[in-house]
Amino acid sequence: MATIDTDLAPRPDWALFFDIDGTLLDIAPTPDAVAVPPSLRENLNILQQRLGAVALVSGRPLAGIDALLAPLVLPAAGQHGAEARAGNERMTVVPLPALRALVTPLQEFAMARPGVLVEDKGNSIAIHFRSAPGRAGEVQALAERLAGPITELEVLPAKMAVDIKLRAISKAAAIEWFINRPPFAGRIPVFVGDDRTDESGFAIVNEKNGVSIRVGEKSGTAARFSIESPAAVREWIAGLARYYR
Q1: Which of 166, 184, 202 is the last residue of a domain?
Q2: For residues 107 and 139, what is the distance between their CA atoms, to the nearest angstrom?
Q3: Based on the domain organization, do 144 and 162 belong to the same domain?
Q4: Last residue of a domain, one of 108, 142, 166
């Protein structure tokens, strides 16, 4: 696998797609505890102003993405692609009742286990164990037991969490939604992500002859390039902002 600092020169016809947690931002004990450096907002804003085609593709809901980066508002896909916006265009998937029915048993499970947190996003559910890493196997097993029999649902291990989402939605579908619309259409897609929930995004970008970049782990991924950490991603973005300025 190539590294972006030695093997990847920026181009003026890129369309940039970024995951957030574990990619732009360091993982924190809870989703609300992440720190957003002001320089990251500034550099993303420069990229959006100069390049035009910049979007966030995250497991977070759109409202959460906007609150995190305020006052900056970027094109974005939330909940692994269950909702998206580009300009005045919006896309939202109708919540599945079978998914909604899992919220209560998952919350009851978490209440009995300190350090486990259930994040109900509407069209997806994340069970975090960042503050209780010893619960990883237990959380995975519960998610599989509850969601596994439901064919419309998919259980995805994430970084210190397990996500339950609709099988029909993915970061690949979200990226494809963007690249069929201006200003993303006709550009070379570049996607930066950090865990299994991003693998479908890497696959679609590779299929489009784009650039797939995995943060951290270098094995067991479809990504063709690697970068070592969110801090290194932020540094790279600062360099892109200078390049496109």
Answers
A1: 166
A2: 12
A3: yes
A4: 166
**pLDDT, tens digit (0-9, with 9 covering 90-100), for 175-227:** 999 999 999 999 999 999 998 899 999 999 999 999 999 999 878 899 999 99
- Residues with a catalytic annotation lie at 19
Q: Do 238 and 43 meet the contact criterion of CB atoms below 8 Å apart? A: yes
Distance (Å, whole) CA 99 – CA 120: 10
**pLDDT confidence of 74, banded at 50, 70, 90?**
very high
How many separate domains does the chain show?
2
**Omega of the bond leading into 12 within 30 degrees of 0 (cis):** no
165: alpha, beta or left? (left if phi > 0; alpha if psi -120 to 50): beta
Q: Which residue has the higher pLDDT, 214 or 159?
A: 214
pTM of the model: 0.91
Are 125 and 31 in contact by the 8 Å Cβ rule? The answer is no
Inter-CA distances, 146 with 128, 136, 158, 189, Å: 16, 16, 17, 36
Half-sphere exposure of 230 (CA within 13 A, CB side): 18
* Cα–Cα distance, 12 to 61 (Å, whole number): 30
pLDDT at 6: 55
Domain that includes residue 42, residue range? 2-92+169-244
- Which residue matches tokens 């265009």? 89
Q: Cα separation of 48 and 183, whole Å?
A: 11
> Which CATH number belongs to the domain containing residue 114 in this structure?
3.30.70.1020
